[in-house]
């Protein structure tokens, strides 16, 4: 198999008609190139979408109250109601598969600026939360600290602001920790700033929000024990999607809502949406492999056709070798090696050009900056090794029929061929 004469013969056969060889090799190289680029593009899209989920507790649902549409237990339809803090404890007790149940309230500015600091002001959304919310949101503390349960118990007037708000209200080198801002007429002390868990630095819009202790918010803005909505995260190993019905029915019973009133409580299942995105990734990979392999198959068919032509041209030579006693397997091996060699060389060229194309795309992305939903297109080493395996198998398949044709030729008939 590793005979010097055999490899010399392979090179002579393939180089005897270089134009034909190059044209044939192009089909295989193009197929691998398309496969590599499509997989890299799919990975880039996957990276971009995953970036949006970076730091988010994906096994989470968000639940809020709406208007009842059915009368129940003497209460009329069309009733507005609120969750209560007791519902949070009820869910923790009745649904032990839950890891975090975060009650939330928010203050959305209606008209004009709602936050003032000295001569600067702005309109920002304000949230009343518990400390666990930082585990569910894609944020981290950049400076200072986040509020804690001591702040919750003592109802301290402290806030954590986004870096975008700090840029709006403070000078670049101005100290901000320990300073005060006025939110809807009430003073609060800034104890920290947060940033998004995003590597592209593009979170300035959502970094313009303010977080404060839930109890402080309730007291300052007269919300009593009302809860605007809840962020609910299931334990690892449990699916919040499978717990949706139990969660909703539990709070329906607590708030005296008809069990069949499906419009009284709204919720958004982030875990279900994330699973849909995961399915999309799988579909994209399937399409990339399907299209790439189809293009590769067309190239392999070309290799097989060319090998049949080569066999036809070498019929007399094969007859002489058979007449001199060469083993049929040796001739078959020769044809298979020629096919595999041509296929692998063609495919390697396609892989190299595919890698260069991916490198060029990444250079362009670095130059123009982050692109929404597309980040760092690439292929893994496993994909490259898989492509090489496909090439070897394809080369064997491309050479199998010509090899079988070659050994079926009788020596006496081959010698008569002109």
Task: Output the number of helix runs.
Answer: 13
First-residue to last-residue Cα separation: 30 Å
What is the share of helical residues?
Answer: 40-55%
Task: Tell me what portion of residues adopts beta-strand conformation.
Answer: 15-25%
Quaternary structure of the protein: single chain
**Strand-and-helix sequence, N→C?**
HHEEHEEEEHEHEHEEEHEEHEHHHHH
Instruction: Please count the beta strands (DSSP E, at least 2 residues each).
Output: 14
Shape: elongated
**Rg from alpha-carbon coordinates:** 34 Å
Q: In total, how many domains does the architecture comprise?
A: 2
Q: Estimate the mean pLDDT confidence.
A: 83
Low-confidence stretches: 199-203
The SS-based structural class is alpha+beta
Largest sheet: 12 strands, mixed
List the helices and strands and how they pair.
Layout: H1 4-15, H2 18-52, E1 60-65, E2 83-84, H3 85-94, E3 98-107, E4 115-117, E5 120-122, E6 125-129, H4 133-136, E7 139-144, H5 149-154, E8 158-162, H6 163-169, E9 180-183, E10 186-196, E11 209-213, H7 214-220, E12 226-227, E13 229-234, H8 240-254, E14 265-269, H9 270-313, H10 315-323, H11 328-368, H12 381-408, H13 411-416
Parallel strand pairs: 6-11, 8-10
Antiparallel strand pairs: 1-13, 1-14, 2-12, 3-6, 3-13, 4-5, 4-9, 7-10, 8-11, 9-10
Family: Belongs to the ABC-4 integral membrane protein family.
Domain ABC3 transporter permease C-terminal: 290-407
Transmembrane segments: 21-41, 286-311, 340-361, 381-401
């Amino acid at each position: 198999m590793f005979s010097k004469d055999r490899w010399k013969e392979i090179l002579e056969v393939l180089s005897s008609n270089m134009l034909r060889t190059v044209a044939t090799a192009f089909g295989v190289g193009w197929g691998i190139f398309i496969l590599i680029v499509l997989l890299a593009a799919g990975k880039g899209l996957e990276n971009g979408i995953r970036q949006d989920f970076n730091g988010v507790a994906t096994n989470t649902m968000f639940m809020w109250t709406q208007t009842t549409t059915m009368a129940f237990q003497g209460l009329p339809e069309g009733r507005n109601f609120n969750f209560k803090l007791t519902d949070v404890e009820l869910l923790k007790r009745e649904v032990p598969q839950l890891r975090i149940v975060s009650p939330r309230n928010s203050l959305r500015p209606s008209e004009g600026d709602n936050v003032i600091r000295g001569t600067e002001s702005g309109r920002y959304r304000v949230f009343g939360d518990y400390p666990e919310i930082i585990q569910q949101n894609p944020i981290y503390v950049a400076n200072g600290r986040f509020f804690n349960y001591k702040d919750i118990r003592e109802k301290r007037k402290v806030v954590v602001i986004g870096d975008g708000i700090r840029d709006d209200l403070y000078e670049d080198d101005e100290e901000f920790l320990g300073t005060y801002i006025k939110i809807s007429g009430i003073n609060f002390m800034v104890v920290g700033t947060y940033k998004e868990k995003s590597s592209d630095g593009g979170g300035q819009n959502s970094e313009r929000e303010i977080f404060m202790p839930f109890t402080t918010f309730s007291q300052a803005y007269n919300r009593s024990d009302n809860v605007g909505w809840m962020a609910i995260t299931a334990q690892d190993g449990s699916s919040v999607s499978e717990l949706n019905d139990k969660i909703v029915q539990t709070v329906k019973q607590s708030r005296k809502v008809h069990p069949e009133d499906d419009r009284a409580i709204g919720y958004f299942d982030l875990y279900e949406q994330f699973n849909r995105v995961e399915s999309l990734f799988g579909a994209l990979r399937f399409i990339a492999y399907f299209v790439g392999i189809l293009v590769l198959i067309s190239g392999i068919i070309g290799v097989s056709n060319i090998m049949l032509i080569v066999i036809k041209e070498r019929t007399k030579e094969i007859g002489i070798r058979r007449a001199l006693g060469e083993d049929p397997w040796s001739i078959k091996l020769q044809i298979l090696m020629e096919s595999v060699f041509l296929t692998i060389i063609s495919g390697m060229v396609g892989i190299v050009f595919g890698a260069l194309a991916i490198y060029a795309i990444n250079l362009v992305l670095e130059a123009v900056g982050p692109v929404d939903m597309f980040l760092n297109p690439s292929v893994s080493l496993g994909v490259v090794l898989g492509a090489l395996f496909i090439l070897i198998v394809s080369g064997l398949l491309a050479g199998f029929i010509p090899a079988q044709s070659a050994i079926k030729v009788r020596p006496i008939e081959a010698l008569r061929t002109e």
